[in-house]
Amino acid sequence: MASDAEIMDAFDSVADDEVFPREAPFDFFYKTLPDTGYSVFLKDGERCGIYLLETDDMNEALLQGRCGVFIIPLNEESKTVISVVYEIAGWSFTIRLPFEHCEPRHVEFLKELKIRKSFQVRFLNYLYGGLVKAGARDYHVPDEEASRIAEFT
Questions:
Q1: Does residue 152 lie in a domain region?
Q2: Do the Cβ atoms of 82 and 119 come closer than 8 Å?
Q3: What is the pLDDT tens value at each position of the chain, 153 positions in all?
Q4: Alpha carbon 115 to chain centroid distance?
Q5: Nearest CA-CA partner of 15 in 136, 137, 139, 138
Q6: For the chain, what is the domain count?
Q7: Structural domain contains residue 134
Q8: Integer Cα distance of 133 and 51 in angstroms
Q9: Alpha-carbon gap, residue 93 to 49, rounded angstroms
């Protein structure tokens, strides 16, 4: 299986709207993102990536829509969820990005997020029977929300 670094490099090497090959390292996305609404987290050193599969229309709305970022600590489940709530055409839509406290890469990301207060989501969608890169968006985490991220020792 390809490393996180190889997968992120491959993703970055492809132009928007170009269909991913089904061979490694791109096969990771085909195997890991079974349907719209699924996300996956990759990390290599300081570099990390959150990848979300959605429909073409939804990606367009998510890339341009108004939104707010909320941190939801679920201590009883040892999980932190980043919720991005959008207002799209008068409707609310929420993306939930879960991070497990038992996963060291997730804990590293949450620690960095608490300081940096920003993250990026890279969007994918299906086109012509294959996965394509659909763009990326940077998100800002308000101070009050960042303060809700657990202190990890």
A1: no
A2: yes
A3: 899 999 999 999 999 989 999 999 999 999 999 999 999 999 999 899 999 999 999 999 999 989 999 999 987 779 999 999 999 888 899 999 999 999 999 999 999 999 999 999 999 999 888 999 999 999 999 999 999 998 864
A4: 18
A5: 136
A6: 1
A7: yes
A8: 10
A9: 22
In terms of phi and psi (left: phi > 0; alpha: psi -120 to 50; beta: otherwise), the region of 30 is alpha
Please check whether residue 151 lies inside any domain of the structure.
no
Q: Provide the domain limits for residue 121.
A: 4-146
Please report whether residue 153 resides in a domain: no
- Whether 9 and 24 have beta carbons less than 8 Å apart is answered as no
> In the numeric block, which tokens belong to residue 48?
């990390």
CA distance 122 to 137: 7
Q: DSSP for 4-61?
A: HHHHHHHHHHSPTTPBPPSSTTTHHHHHH--STT-EEEEEETTEEEEEEE--HHHHHH
